[in-house]
From TrEMBL, chain A:
Residues 22-32 have a biased composition (Low complexity). One of its GO terms (molecular function) is small GTPase binding. PROSITE patterns: TBC_RABGAP (PS50086). This is Rab-GAP TBC domain-containing protein.
TrEMBL record, chain B:
This is Ras-related protein Rab-14. Its EC number is 3.6.5.2. SUPFAM superfamilies: P-loop containing nucleoside triphosphate hydrolases (SSF52540). Belongs to the small GTPase superfamily. Rab family. Residues 185-212 are annotated as: Disordered. Its main location: cytoplasm. It comes from the Eukaryota. The keyword GTP-binding applies. It is an enzyme of class 3 (hydrolase). Keywords: Acetylation, Cytoplasmic vesicle, Endosome, Golgi apparatus, GTP-binding, Hydrolase, Lipoprotein, Membrane, Methylation, Nucleotide-binding, Prenylation, Protein transport, Transport. It is found in: Cytoplasmic vesicle; Early endosome membrane; Golgi apparatus, trans-Golgi network membrane; Recycling endosome. GO terms for molecular function: G protein activity; GTP binding. Its cofactor is Mg(2+).
């Protein structure tokens, strides 16, 4: 199961894929060794390994979920009761099982598709996306960028930071995290002037900060996710947005091929999937799905790349297929598609549909469609 | 669902620079509430409300677009078939006013000639931070044949008026014949008869040429 899924976007051929697998395994092994050796950075301890079971739902009486998202925000469209219910019962059993196997499997096989236990997320994410290696090669990059591009940053950034995270109030203590977020994005804009700042990057950087905690780690991870040499996804955030338009067209075509009756409904209602999926792809499902679901998608996305975005998109359509067919007008159809991601509380089921029930999903098909449907890169 | 409780659907778009308050205007209009720190719009969002103009119930279908320049690559395709375009700037930030001609060019090029374009100077409650005078914007609006109001998504001032005045103009254009309902992409759909029973195999006639 491992080899079939482990290719990255840049590696179309199998040789390349094998190299990627080998590289990923090496990275994983190194991470596991480091995690065990690095006593100063308590990544995995006997007690902490039980976090999944003990922490879930524990903070609910403080009106926060385990990640610090507010669960009592009346403007949040999420069904927090259902989320808490799922996490503390059904999902807790899944996590218990996962935790018991994780330590042992991680070193051997990197089963990120089953979800990464939360204590492992920071080192695992950094490793599988390539940030650990990139940081070793460029240890001073982040600090240098901050020195070179002090607060003269884009004034728009300053105004927009409170507007990160729509489903929830900003997690963690607002001020320190907003300053960290600003620094990460300012450094990123200096590192990658072609993209600079694009709306949506604030969500990605905030999620990385939330999981990785350390702002320089968040920066290095960002370079591996959207940077010039990143292999996880095409450059969706460049000013022309051509790579985004291409992948949205590919997603629509995949829907047409797999669910022609749903595609008909898009056409008949005069709307397109890309209208909704723009946010899914630009933010890689951050802020479109409940937090635990976002984490599960990212566990896979950081390893497999943009193919995961297509899989999750199709899984959402698949799960809501019958309901969408019953939509009586444009608004209910549009909202049905849009809310399918918000309703993805059962993250285990979503990932099961995306990776098992959807069946074979060839990267070569995506690449062929990308070529066929490529959007012009001028704007 | 035996019959529609409105006679027309009008499609609107809301355009303008990022941070001018497009989503907050929409939220204030549909929910009658101010949403502080309203989230970024990535791509396009959608809201509806039924209003009454000259005794006719009209359903407004409002598409709220991302303001950042590069997102126009995505949002442009939703300009098509809009009956009304609300073009928004922020009275406290001159740069957002200076960009209006570029937004106007896009709106004129990508909508139909009868699209009603309404100019809104938002954040009129922040008088002490004002950077664009009413008179200057009014002249710009007059020069370009736009209706203009200053509004505040925060206090709600002139928000209803902006959306409803736009609908009145569109309705007038329908009545005097300058807006052809049968034209493709007029942005207006007339609901003259009860909705057909849901039959997905059969395309309802009322939806043809729909601007939704």
């Amino acid at each position: 199961m491992f080899g079939r899924r482990a290719t990255k976007d840049s590696g179309a051929g199998t040789e390349q894929a094998d190299e990627n697998i080998a590289a990923s395994k090496a990275k994983a092994n190194a991470a596991a060794r480091r995690a065990r050796a690095d006593a100063g950075k308590p990544v995995f301890t006997a007690t902490a390994s039980m976090d999944d079971e003990t922490e879930l739902g524990e903070r609910s009486h403080k009106h926060q979920d385990r990640y610090g998202f507010r669960t009592d925000d009346p403007s949040s469209p999420l069904k927090w009761d259902a989320i808490q219910e799922y996490l503390s019962h059904q999902y807790a059993a899944i996590l218990m099982h996962r935790s018991s196997r994780w330590m042992h499997i991680y070193v051997r096989d990197l089963p990120v598709l089953k979800g990464v236990p939360s204590d492992w997320r920071a080192p695992v994410w950094l490793d599988i996306c390539g940030a650990t290696v990139f940081r070793q090669q460029n240890p001073n990059l982040y600090a240098q960028l901050l020195v070179d591009s002090p607060a003269k940053a884009n004034p728009i950034l300053t105004a927009l930071f409170p507007r990160t995270f729509t489903l929830n109030r900003p997690p963690m203590d607002p001020m320190p995290s907003i300053q960290k977020l600003r620094r990460v994005l300012v450094a990123y804009a200096a590192y990658d002037p072609e993209i600079g700042y694009c709306q949506g990057l604030n969500f990605i950087a905030a999620m990385l900060l939330l999981v990785l905690r350390d702002e320089s780690d968040a920066f290095y991870a960002l370079t591996q996710i959207i940077g010039k040499d990143a292999h996880l996804a095409p450059r969706y955030h460049v000013p022309s947005m051509a790579p985004l338009l291409t992948d949205l067209a590919v997603a629509e075509e995949l829907v047409r091929l797999r669910y022609p009756e749903i595609h008909d409904l898009f056409v008949r209602n005069g709307v397109t999937l890309s209208l909704i999926a723009t946010k899914w792809f630009i933010c890689m499902f951050i802020d479109s799905t409940p937090p635990e679901t976002t984490m599960r998608i990212w566990d896979s996305f950081l390893y497999e790349g943009s193919k995961v975005l297509f899989r999750v998109t199709l899984a959402l359509i698949q799960i809501h297929h019958q309901e969408l067919l019953r939509a009586k007008d444009m608004a209910s159809f549009f909202n049905g598609v849009k809310n399918s991601s918000l309703a993805a509380v059962d993250c285990h089921h979503l990932m099961d549909v995306a990776f098992n029930k959807l069946g074979t999903f060839r990267r070569s098909l995506i690449n062929a469609l990308r070529e066929e449907l490529a959007a012009p890169s001028t704007h | 669902m035996a019959s529609y409780n409105y006679s027309y659907i009008f499609k609107y778009i809301i355009i303008g620079d990022m941070g001018v308050g497009k989503s907050c205007l929409l939220h204030q209009f549909t929910e009658k509430k101010f949403l502080p720190d309203c989230p970024h719009t990535i791509g396009v969002e959608f809201g509806t409300r039924i209003i009454e103009v000259n005794g006719q119930k009209i359903k407004l279908q409002i598409w709220d677009t991302a303001g950042q320049e590069r997102f126009r690559a995505v949002t442009r395709s939703y300009y098509r078939g809009a009956a009304g375009a609300l073009m928004v700037y922020d009275v406290t930030r001159r740069s957002t006013y200076n960009h209006l001609s570029s937004w106007l060019t896009d709106a004129r090029n990508l909508t139909n000639p009868n699209t009603t374009i309404f100019l809104i100077g938002n954040k009129s409650d922040l008088e002490s931070q004002r950077d664009v005078t009413y008179e200057e914007a009014k002249k710009f609006a007059d020069d370009n044949g736009l209706t203009f109001l200053e509004a505040s998504a925060k206090t709600g001032a002139n928000v209803e008026e902006s959306f409803i005045e736009t609908a009145k103009t569109i309705f007038q254009n329908i009545q005097n014949g300058s807006l052809d309902l049968n034209a493709a992409e007029s942005g207006v759909q007339q609901k003259t008869q009860p909705a057909p029973a849901v039959d997905l195999g059969d395309k309802p006639a009322a939806n043809s040429g729909c601007g939704c």
